[in-house]
Write a structure and sequence with these properties.
DNA-binding, about 65% helix, transcription regulation, Arc Repressor Mutant, subunit A, 2 strands, Morphology and auto-aggregation control protein, mainly alpha, transcription, about 110 residues, LysR_HTH_N, two-stranded antiparallel sheet
């Protein structure tokens, strides 16, 4: 799905099909967008904070847009981050549903 005003250089589909974005990056983004705190998000993902920060930075670089506003006291989603959160929730839910369906029907 393309987001022309927010993701001007490429579509999400382009980024996914060119292997520049993976499911792990989307999951890390999703959890950080829910927690709005790097420490809590990292704990929830059972990782340390640096890999989370690196993955989010790489995702922002790939999409060529800022997804989070960061200050020393808080993290908030940008408008692009809000749009992406909606799409990532949809993508990851569909992926989980598909995997569960296959597991249940083809042991």
């Amino acid at each position: 799905m393309a987001f022309p005003p927010l993701f001007p250089k490429q579509t999400m589909t382009d980024a996914l099909t060119n292997n520049r974005i993976n499911i792990r990056a989307l999951r890390y983004f999703q959890v950080l967008a829910e927690e709005l705190h790097f420490g809590r998000a990292a704990a929830r993902l059972n990782i340390s904070q640096p890999p989370l920060s690196i993955q989010i930075k790489e995702l922002e670089e790939t999409l060529e847009t800022k997804l989070f506003e960061r200050t020393s006291r808080r993290v908030t989603l940008t408008r692009a981050g809000q749009v992406l959160k909606t799409e990532v929730d949809r993508i990851l839910n569909a992926t989980e549903h598909s995997l569960n369906y296959v597991r249940a029907n083809w042991p």
